Design the sequence.
């Protein structure tokens, strides 16, 4: 926040530090984080006290468990406790201003739920403000190439009552669940093999019943 109408308050102003939660964002789905993956999380704080925060204020890992994380393994998840000015804060965060602080995390390679807790501390090392936390559900990493079928439709409508010689188009909706982007080198190709749903039918393109 750069509201120039706020009065300039020096970091030496007396009073007690105070903060309120003002937002949270992350660049992954915390309900499904691939094992070994790295991600960013941003907590936003509002300076609700009379002091001005500067480089002497830090965001640090807390061993104190939040009720939402008490039942799960907790650790810094690879993130470092740093001065707020190294995490995205300006040189000064004055009373009434908000600041977004971003940490870089890495989850373990073993699937399961992990958690972490963080808190602001002042120049004297005393914690203040809300205990911020997150939980991440770590899942086995997806294969390089994989997909889910989300749906199918065809232009003929009643495909169980097609007349001989009728042409139609089949449209599959797929979701890329792998770790590799699809580009122009990927194709949909015919496979001359039966599945459980096609074992008693004639395969198109071959006029062969299996």
Sequence:
């Amino acid at each position: 926040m750069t509201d120039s109408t706020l009065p300039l308050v020096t970091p030496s102003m007396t009073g007690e530090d105070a903060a309120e939660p003002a937002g949270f964002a992350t660049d992954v789905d915390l309900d499904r984080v691939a094992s070994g993956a790295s991600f960013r999380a941003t907590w936003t704080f509002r300076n609700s006290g009379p002091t001005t925060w500067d480089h002497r204020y830090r965001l640090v890992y807390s061993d104190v468990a939040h009720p939402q994380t008490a039942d799960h393994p907790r650790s810094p998840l690879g993130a470092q406790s740093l001065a707020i000015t190294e995490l995205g804060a300006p040189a000064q965060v004055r009373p009434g201003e908000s600041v977004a602080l971003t940490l870089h995390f890495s989850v373990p390679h073993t699937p399961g739920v992990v958690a972490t807790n963080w808190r602001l501390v002042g120049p004297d090392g005393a914690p203040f403000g809300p205990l911020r936390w997150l939980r991440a559900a770590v899942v086995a990493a997806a294969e390089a190439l994989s997909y889910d079928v989300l749906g199918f439709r065809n232009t003929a409508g009643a495909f169980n009552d097609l007349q001989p010689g009728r042409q139609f188009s089949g449209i599959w909706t797929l979701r890329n669940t792998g770790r590799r982007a699809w580009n122009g080198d990927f194709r949909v190709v015919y496979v001359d093999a039966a599945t459980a749903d096609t074992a008693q039918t004639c395969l198109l393109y071959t006029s062969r019943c299996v």
In short: The chain has two domains: 19-139, 142-210. Confidence is low (pLDDT under 50) at residues 1-14, 206-210. The first strand starts at residue 19 and ends at 26. The chain is about 0% helix and 35% strand.
